[in-house]
Amino acid sequence: MSVFEVLEKFLDEKEKQPYPVHQYAFVSPKDITFSEHVRAACESNMCGRYGKSWTCPPGAGDWRDLAEHYRGYGNALVFTTKHDIEDSFDVEGMAAAAKEHAKVDEAVLKLLEKLDEPYELSGAGSCSVCTECTYPDAPCRFPKKARRSMEACGIDVVALSRHCQINYTNGTNTVTYFSIIYY
Ligand code: SF4
Description:
The protein has a five-stranded mixed beta sheet, covered by helices on one side. The chain contains five helices and five strands, in the order αβααβαββαβ. The chain has one domain (3-182). It has helices at residues 3-12, 36-43, 63-71, 91-112, 157-164, and strands spanning 23-27, 76-84, 120-123, 148-149, 174-182. With 183 residues, it is α+β, with helices and mostly antiparallel strands. Helix content is 31%, strand content 16%. Bound molecules: iron/sulfur cluster. Iron/sulfur cluster binds at residues 53-55, 127, 129-130, 133-135, 140-142, 145-146.
């Protein structure tokens, strides 16, 4: 099977995933907007992950190199999950939702792992595959499972959502997370 065929099957069975995919679109990576402003916001370290993972600045690499790298792929699947939270201050609910979203990332990567065709995922926030990241002392343990932060790459998710006609937000007391699979 090709990556596209596996992704189609994944989407056909999206209700069976660890958490249901809410919306999705296939796009050309060339249509993804990479922005130095997004990267700068990421580097301001609001999440506290700066310098703590291979998937976050500075270990993630220069955003311009990342943009060129991802634009080298021919295709991409963008998908979201939508989660209910108590209110816009529900930090614990957002963290729990991020974990549910990461389970979907892991499920799709598991489906792809036996394929020879190249693919990569960038997702919502810092990689959470290992309890403690090896950064900066040793190479990434699981480069095929690692999730590079979309913000670290400088991806403008608002522009991406408009391009894909996917909702950036999904209403009061919800949080929406995005991922991209490049192939
Ligand atoms: S897979 Fe593990 S070592 Fe690699 S970036 Fe993620 S947390 Fe770090």
